[in-house]
Write a structure and sequence with these properties.
- The protein folds into two domains: 114 residues, Urease, subunit C, domain 1, CATH 2.30.40.10; 307 residues, Metal-dependent hydrolases (TIM Barrel, Alpha-Beta Barrel), CATH 3.20.20.
- The strands form four sheets. Strands 1, 2, 3, 4, 5, 6, 17, 18 and 19 form a nine-stranded mixed sheet that branches.
- By secondary structure, it is α/β, with parallel strands linked by helices.
- The chain binds zinc ion.
- The site of zinc ion (ZN) has 5 residues, from loops.
Length: 447
């Protein structure tokens, strides 16, 4: 297999150099003094043992591997008024992410090696995290003809998706899975049966009845998930289910995994917390695809996260300008921002479930997605890359999009108090995000 295509990073803050992160809790475990040198985790000492070296006093801060987002819309090229690779990756770094997979539904669509190279080039100049271009499964996302997958793979693409659209044609998807199996790459499906979902605007059931909006039924997702799981098993190809949103989808994934089929799945933070009752208010901040579902779906998704049926949390960060989101419900685009609120929402959800466990957070936001995408990540052991984020578990804030790095403000969490704060993010010992709280910790030596 060729090596994965990724952008080098325009380091946005600067090198950490040789420093001690004093009193941090790697993966939420026992406090330790972690020495960073030459971009790596050089030493891990008992907490409080360190007296020399430049030092950050970080007692109680949680040290986690850099997060990996399998599902980001960066909007560049084509819709730079909503987001750019620069602004979107700054949002990612602020959310603790070191790697994002940039979906192909830009304008033009990422469906050729030239388009992939163009994104890598912009990212190398402007990005604050590593950007992995996802290529389209079908040319121009038209669902008619496969994109030149072999050539894209030769140029380092590891993940294919028509996200935003579903590959409805079963024969075409079967063909794509055959190519994916041959080259050991991933097919990520946005499961939305065209005929069953129609121009659905809101979850079918009470929300659709109350608003008289066109229904987007759970079966439109579940039929595609079941069909594709069967096709993936036949091909022996890795299939990834984007934004699982229903209890039925969870059952199908559980069934596929029990059979040993090569199926993985992600869930978004918003589908773990919000329901269609909010969408029924017809505030377009709650318009998303797939739509917000019923309480029972949220409960099933949470259970699936806890029992490992769902492998990863992915944001589906989908920025839109306020002007476009201010249109009437049916004209407004689907989508919500998510990079800067993903960890706080997940921490809130796990706390509600009395299951906040930092190893689980690391699995869902870093190790799981990295494994699915086939990229390396840091296990935070001696000799591993200093690629991490530092989380203050006792901080929290009321979500205010004016404070966000994203160019867009379409967060459904505005005004909600959510726990945790990412105080610093590092890639190979280069800070890509740092807050005042982190800078203040530098006075460690004086304590
Ligand atoms: Zn999607």
């Amino acid at each position: 297999m060729s090596s994965a295509v990724t952008s080098p990073v325009a380091k946005s803050v600067g090198p950490l150099g040789t420093v001690v992160l004093r009193g941090v809790r790697p993966l939420g475990g026992a406090p330790a003094d972690v020495v960073v040198a030459d971009g790596k985790i050089a030493e891990i000492r008992p907490a409080g043992a360190t007296v020399e070296l430049p030092c950050y006093g970080l007692d109680g801060m949680i040290l986690l591997p850099g997060f990996v987002d399998l599902h980001t819309h960066l909007r560049e090229p084509g819709t730079e008024d909503a987001e750019t690779i620069a602004s979107g990756t700054r949002a990612a770094a602020a959310g603790g992410y070191t790697d994002v997979f940039a979906m192909a539904n830009t304008d033009p669509v990422t469906d050729s090696p030239q388009r992939v190279a163009a994104i890598v080039d912009i990212a190398a100049r402007t990005a604050a995290c590593r950007v992995h271009p996802v290529a389209a499964i079908t040319k121009a996302l038209a669902g008619q003809q496969l994109a030149p997958m072999a050539s894209l793979i030769e140029h380092g693409v590891r993940m294919f998706s028509d996200d935003g659209k579903c590959v409805d044609d079963a024969a075409l998807l079967r063909e794509a899975l055959a190519v994916a199996a041959q080259h050991d790459v991933l097919i990520a499906q946005h499961a939305q049966h065209g005929q069953l979902a129609g121009d659905g605007q809101i979850n079918a059931g009470p929300a659709a009845e109350r608003t008289a909006l066109a229904p987007w039924p759970a079966v439109a997702e579940e039929t595609i998930v079941a069909r594709d799981a069967i096709l993936a098993a036949e091909a022996g190809a890795a299939l990834h289910i984007c934004h699982a949103s229903t209890a039925g989808t969870v059952d199908i994934i559980r069934w596929a995994k029990a059979l040993g089929w090569p199926v993985t799945a992600e869930v978004t933070p918003h589908h773990l917390l919000l329901t269609d009752e909010l969408a029924a208010l017809q505030d377009t901040r709650y318009k998303v695809n797939p739509p917000l579902r019923r309480h029972a779906d949220v409960a099933a998704l949470r259970e699936a996260v806890l029992d490992g049926t769902i492998d990863a949390v992915a944001t589906d960060h989908a920025p839109h300008t306020t002007a476009r989101k201010s249109q009437p419900w049916c004209s407004a685009p689907f989508g919500m921002t998510g990079l800067e609120t993903a960890l706080p929402v997940l921490a809130h959800v796990l706390t509600e479930a009395e299951a906040l466990d930092w190893t689980k957070v690391a699995e869902l936001m870093a190790f799981g997605p990295a494994r699915i995408a086939g990229i390396p990540t840091s296990a935070l052991r001696i000799g591993d890359p200093a690629t991490f984020c530092l989380v203050d578990p006792n901080a929290g804030r009321t979500v205010d999009p004016a404070e966000h790095r994203s160019k867009s403000a379409n967060t459904p969490f505005r005004g909600m108090w959510l726990p945790t704060n990412v105080i610093a993010t590092s890639i190979d010992g280069y800070l890509t995000h740092s807050t005042e709280a982190f800078e203040e910790a530098k006075r460690c030596d004086a304590r």
